[in-house]
Amino acid sequence: MASSTRSQFDESRWPIVIVKTPTQLMDAAAFDDHCKKSFGYYDRGQSFALVFDVRESPALPAEQRRAIAEITDRRSAAHPNVHMVTAIVVASAVQRGVGKAIPWLTRQPVPIEIVGTVDQAIAWCERALAAPPRKRAAP
After folding, report:
1. In terms of residue numbers, what domain contains 91?
2. Within 10 Å of residue 109's Cβ, how many Cβ atoms?
3. pLDDT tens readout for residues 40-82
4. What's phi and psi for 76, nearest 5 deg?
5. Residue 3: inside a domain, yes or no?
6. Per residue in 98-135, pLDDT tens?
7. Rounded distance, CA 4 to CA 1, Å?
8. What CATH number corresponds to the domain at position 62?
9. Omega before residue 61 within 30° of 0, cis
């Protein structure tokens, strides 16, 4: 169970990581920690998937969505041989809309799928990791 302000990371299914986001908005420190852990998996040099379970979380503010897009672009460009895919588990139309907004803000082609259950997310991530990576945008 996620604490009220920090994301919880479950690496037991590596290369698929389940991230349970907090039940309250993340303050700057919690968001920084969340991003460092989420994007730190690039440093392993292996393809990986992030499953964000946001069903009990408030929608990310616009500035945090932009920050995620910017970090995605930087980390993806810095690690061209690492294939990262993301699934977002949502419970509402608002969460679905927020999840769809992030890829619009990125230049790098990171496959994202929005689903209703963690099991659906894991199944999609397994398929996506097995597929050839998408061509990256020029820096």
Report:
1. 8-130
2. 13
3. 999 999 999 999 999 999 988 889 988 988 998 899 889 999 9
4. -65, -45
5. no
6. 666 565 556 556 788 999 999 999 999 999 999 887 65
7. 9
8. 3.30.750.24
9. no
